[in-house]
Write the structure tokens for this entry.
Amino acid sequence: MITMSKLFILGATGHLGGLTVKHLLNQGVNPKDIVAVVRDTNKSSDLEKLGLEIRLGDYDQKDFSPAVFEGADKLLFISSPSFDNTHRIKQHATVVEAARDANVKHIIYTGLAYPDRHNTPLAYVHSATEAAIKSSGIPYTILRNTFYMEYFLVKAEMERAIASGTLLTASNGEMLNLVSRNDFALAAAIVLTTEGHENTIYELTYPVAYSYEDIARILSKLSGKQITHQDVAIEQLKAHLLETGLTPEQLLYDSSAFQPAFANGWASVTSDSLVNLIGRNNLTTIEEAVRKLL
């Protein structure tokens, strides 16, 4: 078992944080060297059973104390799940200020790939957080993650396509760039347990861009049914989904709602940083992800 510096995981009870902890333990990190900083201790019992130290750290509280991060050699700062982007920036600033005052030695932040090319408010959240981290003087690593496969390659959408024979999207013919959450977690675990990543920004993307045409071909192969791709206006797609039975509330969180974010070419830009960190053999392919859904 590896004995090393103290690794703090902010957001350890979430999907990405939990997977990162799993990879750290698989790498032989001593559970006693991992500190899970959580906002709700009722959700941390499984981590506690693994031998991790649990610290309560709710960055929505005005009295959020730097003591939460006391003793941290490396802090994995997983971005807040809040949907209020302005509030999210405030939350992130609270975390960075506390990390600075606690003399955290190295902060690793999960941001957004190529934020300067992204045309949604989400980009401002991550750019503002990156600026706060750099202003703190703490050595940093920014893991700029592209979007999760799990949010865009979803079972309901794949089943709709198989049932109708058409994969209907509003991507404006632009390319995709999605990565499995597990692959991001492995990259974070590797940065936490290896040296040479200080003051570095990694654009973590799939190594090549692909299209919904590619996904339709994969669906055809795996389902044994011919699936074609049809690109339509977002209004037409929304109307179609409402006709299939989705409520307006469900439509807000359907994977299709985010497809126009790809329409400016943001997702067509790729990098080898992820493959270089985790190794090509560990990369989850698009076909593997779709096969798992089906």
Remarks:
- The radius of gyration is 20 Å.
- The longest helix spans residues 85-101.
- The mean pLDDT is 93.
- Residues 74 and 96 are 13 Å apart (CA to CA).
